[in-house]
Design brief:
By secondary structure, this protein is mainly beta. The chain contains 1 helix and 11 strands, in the order ββββββαβββββ. The relative contact order is 0.27.
Length: about 110
């Protein structure tokens, strides 16, 4: 029973329980530092889901975010000087798997020679 505007009302609803398999996403270097050169930067390595037993391209969403004073939020790798995290996440719409993996990285200023 639900109380709505002071009146008891009966509403039917269905709950669907979905059992998803946790996946282990790995393979990227954490805390890498890159030097600014105007090109997009992303952590090095090869992303792997369950040691290659699951196809990555079918599962993973990618999101880059600035950290600290760096303002950035995109699916595209950043180019500017700053600190970032990249998160690889199994899409919520995937009915079989769940999992998230994040690594941090920095793009530092290019030192000019005198």
């Amino acid at each position: 029973m639900v109380l709505l505007n002071g009146k008891k009302q009966q509403k039917d609803f269905t709950i669907h329980v979905v059992n998803k398999t946790d996946v282990n996403i790995s393979g990227l270097s954490n805390n890498e530092t890159f030097t600014y050169d105007g090109n997009p930067k992303m952590p090095t390595g090869t992303i792997s889901v369950n040691a290659g037993t699951v196809n990555v391209s079918d599962l993973v969403e990618v999101k880059y975010q600035g950290t600290g004073t760096t303002s950035y939020n995109s699916a595209t790798a950043p180019t500017n000087v700053g600190t970032y995290t990249v998160t690889y996440k199994v899409a919520d719409s995937n009915s079989d798997y769940t999992g998230t993996f994040s690594v941090a990285f920095t793009i530092k200023k290019h030192n000019l020679k005198k």
